[in-house]
Design a protein that fits this description.
Blueprint: H1 8-14, H2 17-39, H3 44-50, H4 55-83, H5 85-102, H6 111-137, H7 143-168, H8 173-192, E1 215-218, H9 219-248, H10 253-269, H11 271-280, H12 283-300, H13 307-333, H14 341-369, H15 372-392, H16 402-414, H17 416-423, E2 426-429
Antiparallel strand pairs: 1-2
Helix pairs in contact: 1-2, 1-7, 2-6, 2-7, 2-8, 3-4, 4-5, 4-6, 4-14, 5-6, 5-8, 6-7, 6-14, 7-10, 7-11, 7-13, 9-12, 9-13, 9-14, 9-15, 10-13, 11-13, 12-13, 12-15, 14-15, 16-17
């Protein structure tokens, strides 16, 4: 066998030529997708006003992106298990691109709700399919590094996109919509090169035909889904209240922009070490410590009045999220049949998106009552969710060694009876 290609990090992350190429390709694809997807976010509410819409309509337009994710991520994961992950990934990119181009048409303000919803459907399908590709191709003991690489690409795109959108401004939204659509189509180019290790639903090692059966809810998965809800709570509060908090403390526009960028930069910088940690340290401890630290930061923010300190702490908090995400994803798919990981990722994405949407909807009203209320509420609920996850995870193996990882995957592929012995009791749902 010829030596594995790519960087030492990529080779170390996945171990073989095929999986190393897959992770590189997915990282590039996801970076491009989120670069275009987030470029329009800063100025979209202003654009809705220019169309003649109200602030209420602008809120509905922004919410439709999340609503589409809640409604469609699990069905898209199920579809990915049936027809393959690559077709769903490419389909999501194309749908997002088409919706972006449609914004260039002479539309009425209310049409933006449907178009933004289509963008959410496309982005959600792409995210689920990409993570399912990783779950199905990379051994359990190496998934932390693989997930970290893909998340690093996503966050890098999210860091650059809003910056571009802010520079171009609301008067150039046509350029942003055009560019977002083009970038999404360009992301299809590397995606077309993806070769799934085994077609979804086909025979062969690791494919038991469960793409057409029921999804097993075992302890490792359930704990990760509970943690996803906790993650969504803090994310939703920040989406609505972070800028309001900084404005209330007297921050300028550039300081607010820097604060969002500084959250993304540490996440990208920490991607490689956080992936390594997820494959060598107890994954449960990483999730609980990372999200627990995030809850502590969240609870402290409303009592801090220094803008520079808030910005610094926001960037520091990103390291906790960076440590938690690869470990959480690894636990999510640990012990799952590789033919059902599309639905697993769809369930995770649905819960996280729903939690984010609910928290965002409630945070604005809570902030109007008291500045501290949304932050402390999110922190308390996050700690409660993490306590539940820790109990659920008690019998779950936190560290997966190569031999144990292969045995667990073989048991998962064999059926629910064996899974119960590896990852705790399991049940099946449609």
């Amino acid at each position: 066998m010829r030596p594995a290609g790519g960087t030492p990090a990529a080779r170390d992350a996945v171990g073989t030529d095929a999986t190393a190429r897959l992770i590189r390709t997915l990282t590039i694809t996801i970076f491009l997708q989120w670069l275009g997807a987030t470029a329009i976010i800063p100025m979209l509410p202003v654009y809705i006003r220019h169309l003649g819409g109200t602030d209420l309509l602008a809120g509905l337009v922004m919410a439709s992106f999340f609503a589409a994710g809640v409604l469609l991520q699990y069905p898209m994961g199920r579809l990915a298990d049936r027809v393959g992950r690559r077709p769903v990934l490419i389909g999501g990119l194309v749908v997002y691109s088409a919706a972006s181009f449609a914004f260039l048409l002479p539309i009425v303000p209310t049409a933006a709700i449907a178009l933004r919803g289509l963008q959410g459907a496309g982005a959600g399908a792409g995210a689920v399919a990409a993570l399912a590709l990783v779950s199905g191709a990379v051994p359990a003991e190496r998934r932390g590094r693989a997930f970290a690489a893909v998340y690093g690409g996503e966050v890098a795109g999210m860091a650059v996109g809003p910056l571009i959108g802010s520079i171009l401004g609301a008067h150039h939204m046509d350029v942003l919509f055009l560019g977002s659509g083009v970038v999404s189509l360009v992301a299809c180019v590397p995606a077309l090169r993806i070769s799934e290790p085994v077609p979804a639903g086909a025979g062969g090692p690791g494919w038991s035909g469960r793409a057409f059966g029921r999804l097993r809810l075992h302890r490792s998965l359930v704990g990760a889904v509970v943690a996803a809800a906790a993650l969504g709570l803090t994310t939703g509060v920040y989406d609505i209240c972070w800028t309001l908090l900084l404005l209330g403390r007297g921050a300028t526009g550039w300081q607010i922009g820097v604060s969002w960028t500084l959250f993304a930069v540490p996440f990208v910088a920490a991607a490689r070490p956080s992936g390594w940690l997820a494959d060598h340290v107890d994954r449960r401890a990483l999730v609980l410590a990372g999200l627990g630290a995030a809850a502590a930061f969240c609870a402290s923010y409303p009592f801090i009045h220094s803008v520079p300190l808030l910005i610094t702490l926001g960037g520091t908090e990103a390291f906790g999220f960076a440590a938690a995400m690869p470990a959480m994803q690894s636990l999510l798919t640990q012990g799952s049949d590789r033919s059902e990981v599309g639905r697993v990722q769809g369930l995770f994405g649905t819960v996280q998106t729903a939690s984010t949407a609910v928290a965002a909807a409630a945070a604005g009203a809570a902030y109007a009552v008291a500045v501290w209320l949304p932050f402390l509420t999110a922190a308390v609920l996050t700690v409660t969710a993490l306590a539940v996850a820790s109990v659920v995870w008690l019998p779950v193996e936190g560290r997966v060694h190569p031999r144990a990882g292969r045995a667990a995957e073989a048991a998962a592929d064999a059926g629910p009876a064996q899974v119960a012995g590896v990852a705790g009791a399991s049940v099946e749902v449609q």
